[in-house]
Write a structure and sequence with these properties.
Arc Repressor Mutant, subunit A, 2 domains, 58% helix, extended, disordered N terminus
């Protein structure tokens, strides 16, 4: 599995009734190199591989709607003027306020909101992580958003 997100392949072999973990990667000359690795390193690489692939898939899913932009919207994005210093400072100030408001949320709302918006977890993944239902997670995040709006009013 060589692609632009994972530059290695993990393989297992059985030798003398023992599982051997092998990492295959390309060296600086583009040649494939195979090396035996410990089960702990294999697990770390596998977890990293899965997380990278999952995050890439999530990113693609979240950005699909950008392919549906109209010509006028695309033109507007091209000609967007950079923010002034005052606008940049105001944006940073609002971001600080947002982070402080998030800290005031109840633990469950805060955790799920952060997982969804900052860590790019899907609602289903959060539900699976917390042994909860998809609907419960969605309601909790919507409630957190409502609470944040109330804090800013």
């Amino acid at each position: 599995m060589f692609d632009n997100t994972n530059h290695y392949e993990l393989r297992t072999e059985i030798q003398d009734e023992k599982t051997i973990y092998i990492a295959v990667f390309k060296n600086g000359n583009g040649q494939e190199v195979e090396t035996e690795i410990s089960p702990k390193v294999a697990k770390t690489l596998f977890v990293t591989f899965v997380k990278t692939e999952r995050n890439l898939r999530r990113s693609d899913e979240r950005h699909l709607n950008y392919t549906e932009l109209t010509e006028d919207e695309l033109q507007q994005r091209v000609f967007d003027v950079p923010k002034s210093l005052e606008e940049e400072i105001y944006t940073k100030f609002r971001n600080e306020q947002l982070h402080k408001a998030i800290e005031k949320l109840p633990e469950t709302q805060r955790r799920r909101l952060v997982l969804y918006y900052f860590k790019n977890y899907t609602l289903e993944q959060i539900a699976n992580l917390e042994n909860s239902s998809f609907q419960t997670v969605a309601r909790t995040i919507n409630k957190a958003i409502t609470n944040l709006k109330n804090l800013f009013e």
